[in-house]
Amino acid sequence: MPDLLLHDFPLSGNCHKIHLLCAMNGLPLESRRVEVLDGATRTEEFARLNPVQQIPVLQDGETIVQDSQAILLYLALKYAPHWADPTPEGMAAIMEWLSYAAKEVSNGPQMARLHFLDPHEDIDIARAQAMGRKVLALLERVLSERDWLCLGRPTIADLAVFPYVGLARQGELPLDDHPAVLAWIDRIRALPGYHPMPGLPEAL
Ligand SMILES: N[C@@H](CCC(=O)N[C@@H](CS)C(=O)NCC(=O)O)C(=O)O
Question: Which pTM value belongs to this model?
Answer without folding.
Answer: 0.97
